[in-house]
Amino acid sequence: MFSKIKSKDKAENLKKILDKKGIIVMPGCFDALSAKLIEREGFDVGFMSGFSVSSTRLGMPDTGLISFSEMAEQVRNICNSTTIPIIFDGDTGYGNSVNVFRTVRGYADAGAAGVMIEDQKWPKKCGHTKGKDVVDIDEAKSRIKAAVDARKYGNNDILIMARTDAIATHGLDEAIKRMQIFSKIGVDILFIEAVKTKEDMKKIMKEVPGNHMVNLIEDGDTPLLEINELEEIGYKIAVMPLTLMSASVKTMQECLKNMKNKSYNTNVTKFSELRDIVGFNEYYDIEDKYK
User: Fold this and answer.
1) Distance separating alpha carbons of residues 47 and 17, to the nearest angstrom
2) pTM of the model
3) Segments in the chain below pLDDT 50
């Protein structure tokens, strides 16, 4: 019910996971409950996307509408309820490079093992939707440099993921160029958003060494290759940021249709299991201890 792992230890655990051989399958959470389910299923690491938090917390699209404080609160809630390292979406850093610095430190202090900072113009957009654009290369470098410098500024360590959305507006070569620059600055994970073909993936791996993440969204722009194939290409992380949220929406829609038809829903989690998942049994143990 309450995490006993310090954020600095979570960052160290994430480094060890990245050093292991093989690709990492990383499910996406959107709140503390979904994060707990990821951990209970035995995954070593998770990811929280801005799309999913904006959708579930505000009921609004991922178009820059959610604030730093709202995201940081979600980070803290998730980290307080889990022990595994989780990487969190830091969007553009919510302002200039000083804001980026504050965002990285704020996420680290909230318990994040890693934070993703991107090069989009504000208001940012989901990487698989229309209307997005990127800042010029100098501003992008400034953001990533601030993030890297902020990484170990306080007592809590945090890893930095650099993301570029340059493919959409400037093409693959510009995206690769930006990743090469970000890599030299010293980021821990590299992420070119919305890669459209297997050939482009191979080109990225050839021209930019490092720990690369691929974003796998059902019905998104990036082809859903087999995980083993992505590993052969050279990816270190295969993230599925929206799958749990999409599955939840579909299940809730089906349940609501049954209710509307005056039927009960039988394909649901048993109440006893639900109580255990949310922490009632641990709560009772603590309650008994202090009676």
Assistant:
1) 14
2) 0.95
3) none
